[in-house]
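Quick question: who can interpret this fold?

. . .
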Amino acid sequence: PLKITGMRAYTHEVDKREVVLDMNICYDGDADIDAEIKPPIVAGVKGLQFKGMMRVILEPLIGQAPLVGGVTFFFIRRPTLQINWTGMTNLLDSPAFSSLSEETIMDIISSMMVLPNRMCIPLIDQVKVDQMRFPLPRGVVRVHLVEARNLVPKDTFMMGMVKGKSDPYAVLRVGNSQFKTKTIKENLNPRWTNEVYEFVVHEAPGQELDLELFDEDTDKDDFLGRHILDLGDVKKEKELDKWFPLTDIPSGEVHMRLQWLSLHTDQSLLNETTDGCACAMLAVYLDNASDLPKDNSEFTHNQKQGKHSKEAKLTKRVAEPNTLVEMSIRDHVQKSKVAYASNNPVWEEGFTFFVHSIKNEQLTVEVKEHEKKNVLGVLTIPLSRLFNVSNMTLEQPFLLERSGATSQIKLKATLRVLTIEKPEPEPILEPPPQPKPAQSAPGGKPPAPPSGSGTPSAAAATPSRAALPVSPLNGEYDGQRRGSFLGTSGRRTAPDTPMMRRYDSHSLLSDNSIASSRFDLSEGGSYPKEVLNHQGTFGEIHLTVRYTTLRKRLVVLVNSCKDLITCNENGTDSYVRLYLLPDQSWRHRMRTQVKKRNINPTFNEKFEFNVSQEEALTRKLDIAVKNNRMFHSRERKEIGMVLIDLANLDLMKGVTDWFELSLPGLKKSN
């Protein structure tokens, strides 16, 4: 039987209304097939092996049976196939023919089930098959190939006794898209200029950039190494600029800069350049055509004057046409599959194009006969028309020119502006303030000693744990982080149970917890005026924190926020950043997706930390709600913070509650 040898379920990388599974499948079958082609010729198959990774997407999740609206499954990469031929066909087992036969079969499978092709099964009527089979891509990756170093010399002299250099070039692949760079002659540390490539990404994580380096030779090119990068890493980091090690080779590295481009409908984000990079992407779903002429004689010869009706009746009957569609933007041409023997052909295929000038480019669609290449109809759509319609999308039947009177083609064209996603600047880490002797402050006022103390202490100089009734509140910190989760008017009161009690963010802080590094503060950064002028509280964040013993993970669910500071006239573009202290390096940083124009955003995102239960109780959870749209580059992005000491939580039972947000240095007002 078919075996599933491994499975992975994605969590925070995907939308919360879908379940995404990757399954490694293997079929090592004992098939025994004999076919009598024509006596005495007998052919057959004695066993076959099929391996690949299948992605299964269950979406959308619904609140009633069958719980999911549809099932989509496909292979991200081409599977492998090995066939043991028998009879006359065992000739195909020879090296010259086996790859040819199996590649032909894999081409057929790929046309059905390898990205961007998908198999889809809708389970409810509200789900459209075309949206399942051809959703918009996740984004676009722009790859700058910069240089390589320490490559292996492959050109040798004097029977290999003298090592020379190599003539390297690179091949980059994502799915079915492939590019080859120019060759750099005799160089083990080559540098490329203007080698920039763009790839449409349908699934991230999952799809990979496969880069291979070769030494160009007159006979056979020598392998110099490869690097495979999951494009989900680029989507997560927004930009990667680093050296990547080459594998399957003794030495070598390659330097690439990769950028993630998101798809938008905001016209103001359009940025057309002259450097050859795309400014937009066009996705076309080709559905079907209707009432096509059988050949071009129907709309040419029959229109000639003087053709007698009797002569028209005696005209030789023409079979239904075999048709395909050619789509092009400038010199980039893509072809559909062939629909045989029908003047109402159905294709149901998706295509993507990169756009460099919306004003000057247009989509040209030609319906052609497969064998004769005669044009049966033409459609032209200026991209400027798409740019100005609602949602930048046209979905309708279009009348064909140079075709029959009622000939139509149905398609959906969607234009999206490409925008480079910028990574957040890495926080500037500052040491916590050190205790100082009493002296005049820059403003001329000496620091006030804490109540009941005659001399300044370390607790006064370093903000300390704030105020539950069991702990005296440090006066200096009181001015920075006011607010409590205990009985504020107008706020929902949690049930009086250990699981749902409310927590004061101050009570969960330790002596060194207000180090500026915890809050990603920029040196000398100040709050924008929208934050400084804010009247009222800083809002709340709804969290679930629990520990799962089976998987040995600390799980944090960022559910939602409410009553955030309004940072612009449309609301706030907010996201949530998390650290599990003391880990606060860039690679330990976790964050949600950005929710735009909403002061009550819903995130529903889950984050997991690989720590033991004992260790989790010694950690603190540092959470900041940030404004994604900066007012000025030097201004701080925080609009609310909370620090949670996990030792105070019942992690085994789990805690779900609202936590009040505050900002250091600012007071909430009633």
